[in-house]
Structures are given as structure tokens and as C-alpha cells.
Amino acid sequence: MTEQEACSACGELIADRFLLKVSDTSWHARCLRCCVCQTPLDHQPSCFVRHGSVYCRPDYVR
What we know:
The chain has 62 residues and is mostly beta strands. The protein is built from one helix and four strands. It has one helix spanning 57-60; strands spanning 20-22, 25-27, 48-50, 53-55. The protein has a two-stranded antiparallel ribbon with strand order 1-2. It has a two-stranded antiparallel sheet with strand order 3-4. One of its GO terms (molecular function) is DNA binding.
């Protein structure tokens, strides 16, 4: 049995079938959002991290 990981956004254990890994952190799919515009990133082809915060492409390049 594998140990459950805590979501970087909400802090709850991830018991979902899928979890997302971004820059060595784990996320519920519903919790992975751009820190600026709150766009969900679970269906985006990429996301970007700067100083520990997660961004969508448009907000990252600003």
C-alpha cells in the first residue's frame, strides 16, 4: 500500500484515482489553479512555477 500525499493547495490527503505532480508537489485535479486568475490547470497542456506559485501561461509571461 502506498502512502497518500497531501495536496499543496488544500492540505487534504489525496485519495482520488489521479493526482497531479507539479515541481515535486502533489495536487488534487480540482485544486490546481493559476494563482493569479484562478483558471483551472488540470486540463491545460502546461503550467509554470515561479517562487513556489503556479501560473497559467498568460499570467506567467506578464
